[in-house]
Amino acid sequence: MTTLQTRPAPTATIRPRAVARTGLYLLLAVNAAVVARFFVQAGFASNALIVLGRLAGLYGALLMAFQLLLVARLPWLDRRIGMDRLTSWHRWTGFALLWTLLTHAVFITFGYAQASSMDPVSQLVNLAETVEGVLRAVVALALIVVVGAVSARWARRRLAYETWHFIHLYTYAAVVLAFTHQVAAGTTFTSSPAARTYWYTLWGLALGSVALGRLVLPLWRNLRHRLRVSAVVPESDDVVSVYVTGRDLDRLPARAGQFFLWRFLTRDRWWQANPFSLSAAPDGRTLRLTAKASGDGSAALRHLKPGTRVFAEGPYGAFTTLHRTRPESVLIAGGVGVTPIRALMEELQGHAVVIYRVTTDRDAVLYDELCDLALTKGAELHLVTGPVLPDKLAPRELARLVPDIGERDVFLCGPPGMMTAVLRSLADLGVPRRQIHFERFSLAG
Asked: Is Transmembrane included in the keywords of this UniProt record (predicted)?
């Protein structure tokens, strides 16, 4: 039997994720220094609480702009860091923003109350009634508190995604209100033409990034490619593949391992977007997604008709060969998490070991395709079956299946519990973190 041996792809000497992450940190640090400089140039108030409150407000405005950048879905950042990590950073930046703005409001209110001998509540009411822009700031803070409350883990678990997302959209109203407050009442904003130019530029770039990444780019791509369903193919009793075609798909910058937010424009589902990975490497003619019927959105895929219009946002994700650090790799899939793994098999070069973890043989979706790809590319394929416990992917088992796992890149996708267990096993085996690649796709939508 002859197998096709492919030449190992060159690996990155400088990690793209490290470059992007360092760039974001540097961008934030430089802007923090600029804000501090403008703050000092504007002069200090006589009351220390007011001084600290103003500084907190400025850094709150900076954090708000940074938050917008994190969720703008700019392709350059998304391909290098991944939507899951950017979303996680956005979440923690949001909590930092909440506490920073609360500090701003409390310190300013108590500072002015100290100077006027009024109680804090009366002072806040007085500021809202007499100072332009303060009432807008109070409303903005209230909106951010509400968004922060529903984003807390205990509340997020109890809300449907659509409900949480709708409430989260009020953040944009808070941004506009906060900016108009800064224009009207910010002493640093009005202290010099340079300061005004800086803040207008900062807010313009932040809001422009959101408009570009989340509105202009998706609309332009969908108008250009005009996606439609070409075929719906059942893979098993509860798994279906959807084939999508369109114009000029060879110019769509999609890679194996990435996903889209798919909207199928039927009467009852046009408003609902679901994140599904590509289950085959893009070939310039067709896109394929494969999904398990785990909810209303994915279950409805089986009933799609050829010709149905599709609106797809993306491609998104950093789960690609861009981040390879070694010429050989291990691909570990669990359940329907095999879809991006199967796509990566087509694109990966060099020797690969594929481990597919399922409960029973019947759950091994796309297994025949994996076998064909393994034969063509000279890869090893291991189907691991059995109940969740005992753990079939414990450190000893992984070391048995892949003795040189520490010298390979590891691409991992599967249910959250399995991924956590495998990541723990990889850490126990001493696999360097830079060689482990995964995305938690549930964060995408």
From this structure: yes
Q: Where in 367-406 does DSSP place strands (E)?
A: 380-384
> In the chain, what is the straight-line distance between the N-terminal and C-terminal CA atoms, in Å?
44
Residue 107 near residue 53, CB atoms below 8 Å: yes
**Amino acid found at 205:** L
Helix or strand holding residue 352 (H, E): strand 352-357
CB of 101 within 8 A of CB of 148?
Answer: no
Give the burial string for 81-91 (b: 16+ CB within 10 Å, else e): bbbbbbbebbb
Amino acid identity, position 149: A
Amino acid at 293: A
The pair of structure tokens assigned to 308 is 């149905």
Token pair recorded at residue 373? 């790809």
Those residues with Cβ within 8 angstroms of residue 191's Cβ, 6 or more apart along the chain or in another chain: 38, 41, 42, 43
pLDDT of residue 5: 39
Write out the H or E segment, with its range, that includes residue 298: helix 296-299
Does a cis peptide bond (omega within 30 degrees of 0) precede residue 390?
A: yes
Asked if the model's pLDDT at residue 77 lies above 80, the reply is yes
**What value, to the nearest 5°, has the Cα angle with vertex 19 and ends 14 and 20?**
145
- Tens of pLDDT, residue by residue over 125-140, are 988 888 888 899 899 9
Alpha carbon distance 428, 207 (integer Å): 43
pTM, 2 dp: 0.86
pLDDT exceeding 70 applies to what percent of the chain? 93
- Residue 196's SS3 state is helix
pLDDT bracket for residue 445 (50, 70, 90): very low
Q: Which two tokens stand for residue 313?
A: 């946002």
For residue 87, what are its two tokens?
């979303």
To 5 degrees, how large is the angle CA 61–CA 65–CA 67? 115
